[in-house]
């Protein structure tokens, strides 16, 4: 009996295991998926393949960074895909004046959508999912009005941005990594980041403490819109085409998956940028693995749905402790 009791004490309880999985499960899943591909996927271990994966994951990661900020305030931003579509339309319209002006115009468009969503949430009291859902529909509609059909993008600077690299590292991956470092620093080391987490933890308490809740919320959704616009601009450079009807479709799903799998709870009050990066890479690698093994694209969406359910379940179980 004594030995049995000792064995029970040495075994981790269920809540400990769930907590560990939420904190580190994304890294474990990523390691398992990498090992699977190393041994069972042809031509996986090659510089060209790694560059391809880095380029493809970059827009998802950039959008997920903004999504993480929104979720950290106990909100959500469903308009990110539409903002990408709007950004590609604006880029195409203004590219004749130079890529820098096109980029600024695209960022302004993303900021306006974010400002509209943040204002509805902060001042009108509309639920984040409702406010951003309306902008998701309206934003893509505006994008299609500006550019009704696919248009080729022929600009040397955009071509270099989309396919160029430094020491073998694609420009898109460098930009995504830089933005991840900046957002991580803002969340962990700045007053704005601490206020963001306090609002997500308890908005009424943050208001009673005198924090500028409205200003922080608006800033969060503006940042999310701007980051989504950056992703749309970079995706346009990579594809060398503007297609507002398809660019950014289901990007909300990929971004939310990356954030939740990375350990950021939907209940707010916490943002894990490192986990978000790992989550974005995991989702991209999972998609690439299914494609390389000749499985239908519909299986990718099913796999993402399963991953989301598992991640949310882990977060829910941890919250019961």
Using brief descriptors, characterize the structure shown:
about 325 residues, mainly alpha, two-stranded antiparallel sheet
SSE map:
Layout: H1 2-10, H2 14-40, H3 47-72, H4 80-94, H5 99-124, H6 128-146, E1 151-152, H7 156-163, E2 165-166, E3 169-170, H8 171-189, H9 191-201, H10 203-208, H11 213-239, E4 241-242, H12 251-261, H13 273-292, H14 298-319
Antiparallel strand pairs: 1-4, 2-3
Structure description:
The chain has 321 residues and is mostly helical. The chain has a domain at 46-249. 77% of the residues lie in helices and 2% in strands. It contains 14 helices and four strands. It has helices at residues 2-10, 14-40, 47-72, 80-94, 99-124, 128-146, 156-163, 171-189, 191-201, 203-208, 213-239, 251-261, 273-292, 298-319; strands at 151-152, 165-166, 169-170, 241-242. It has a two-stranded antiparallel ribbon. Strands 2-3 form a two-stranded antiparallel ribbon. Helix 7 (156-163) crosses helix 11 and helix 12 packs parallel to helix 14. It is globular and about 55 Å long. The two termini are 28 Å apart. The mean pLDDT is 89.
